[in-house]
Amino acid sequence: MSDGQHSYYEFWKETVSRIKQTLPEQEYNTWFNRLTYLRSEKGKVILGGASQFILDTVVSRYRELLVNTLSELTGEELTVQFEVASRDELEQGPEIDQEEREVSSRKSEAKRAISAQKNAKNRAESNLNPSYDFSSFVIGDNSAFAYNASLAIAKNPGSSYNPCLIYGGVGLGKTHLLSSIGNYILDNTPELKVMYVTAEMFTNEFIESIGSQRTQHFKNKFRKVDVLLIDDIHFLQGKDSTQEELFHTFNNLYDAKKQMVFTCDRPISELKNITDRLSSRFERGLNVDLQPPNYETRMAILKKKLFQKNASMSEEILNYIATNVVTNVRDLESSLTKLVAYSELLDQEVSFEKAKELLGVLPAHAANASQTLSIDTIIKVVGQYFNISSFEIKGKKKNKSIVQPRQIAMYLARDITDFSTTEIGTEFGGRDHTTVMHSYDRVESMMKADEAFTNTVLKLKRDLTTIKS
Ligand code: ADP
Ligand code: MG
Q1: I want to staple 301 with a disulfide (CB 3.0 to 4.6 A). Which of 78, 138, 320, 387 is the partner?
Q2: Separation CA 94–CA 97 (nearest Å)
């Protein structure tokens, strides 16, 4: 670490939180609850276990995983040493480390004070929400690629994936990942200047700078950063002069090998009214997508959020939420928040019946789902069921494994929403309304002929009409 102290405690916390996500709960509790971080030396982490037996098992089963994860996170080749710890040590956790920390902090106090000031300034100016970090992000099949790319960027800004674009629907974690990149960089290389803005903020500031004749100031502000994070670039559609300005900012930063990460609610190819030269810049680097989480990941997310809120909820209720709230993580989170708030306010546990009543919006919304359900949600849910991306459903591929889900999604869009076939066609990657009508007829006739097919369509329809959208 930069200031000469060798505390790997933060990395240890992140390591166990990751391992927790990959192991069955029972297994995790058995071994990892009896293991603690004791202290560290340069290049080495010393862990304590409650008994030799526990240590032997941990060493034989998890040593490699621990070493690899710690090394990956710190970017150093670490070794891990194991000791039998006293009960005090186990209970106190890394108290010893605290002492170690104090000694080294006294040594470098002066040096720190100076850099702390600068770091605090960098943090304040970054605009980042400090509560988003990698350790609170639950990784699933839907997000592993985006997560890994983000972490790699955070560890080595400007060098590997530049620029990077993270795209995906609302509430799927774009802002969370983007902010995690910035927070990680500020934590580990606080001397770097990180700037987070939404595309809307960027636009507004640009317009203001024109009004107050301070465009040079605006240009300098964005061109002197080391890391530029712009959220929700779809907002720039149709904003020609802001696009022009961003284009120049981009070129400046790109030539100087400064890291840029953008997020967007759809693939770049689906943006409208964006100049070709800007969209080709966005597409230049790595493009990663975020999909809605599957059931297992939804459960894992709920459990993590509960843990963070220091609350508990029966498995039955969690299962109910994870089964019914399939749209995105934000909706999952708000369902849970509602129940936890209720339970805290009344200081009583929520029963399954009460939970269903409180979340009544789920089935109760079915009646008016047709007004609010978006075509995008239908595409997502159908895609998730068939394990293909929204991108593929909207795309041009003609394999049967994609054509059939595409037709089913069109059928459902026509069947349960009030959108016109023209509107539906547009949402399906700009197809003609006759294609939508043809798909509808095709699915209808297949339903007459094939019972299993009918059941699939009906199941999807049921799922969709119980979604709160
Ligand atoms: P987006 O920017 O894509 O609309 P956000 O990043 O704002 O979505 O995410 C919505 C909420 O869901 C946030 O509170 C965020 O912390 C949470 N969230 C999203 N994805 C995950 C995840 N994989 N693990 C944990 N929390 C998540
Ligand atoms: Mg967002």
Answers
A1: 138
A2: 5
